[in-house]
Design goal:
It is a single chain. The chain is mainly α. Helices cover about 45% and strands about 10% of the residues. It has helices at about 5-15, 35-45, 55-65, 80-95, 95-100, and strands spanning about 45-50, 70-75, 105. It has a three-stranded parallel sheet, with helices on both faces.
């Protein structure tokens, strides 16, 4: 979870047993988006963000010949907390790192 993700979403996913790691828990708060994406890719974890600027970094990767772990973008004004939790739980249940690699999912699904 990127550091800008609403804490209620993180709490709701954890209450449903979804395995996740926040940027803060990984002691990476305040690092550039490129480094956050590099770290998520290193860990093999899909990255969830509310940060529209993050999408710029994601779109640069293929043009530079760089792969990345999957990214889920949820614009906070377009999806409520409950719907975001449900969609992310579904992605966690059916997704796998290989199928999400180099892809951006936009919420709501």
């Amino acid at each position: 979870m990127d550091e800008n993700v609403n804490g209620a979403i993180t709490a709701g996913l954890r209450a449903r047993g979804v395995d996740l790691l926040t940027v803060q828990e990984d002691d990476r708060s305040g690092i550039p988006d490129a480094s956050v994406l590099d770290r998520a890719t290193q860990l093999g974890r899909c990255l969830v963000t509310h940060d529209v600027d993050f999408l710029t970094e994601v779109h640069l990767r293929p043009n530079a010949g760089q792969s990345f772990v999957g990214v889920v973008y949820a614009h906070p004004n377009r999806i409520g907390v409950g719907e975001c939790i449900r969609d992310l739980e579904l992605i966690a249940e059916v997704g796998d790192p290989e199928s999400q690699a180099n892809r951006i999912e936009y919420l709501p699904l």
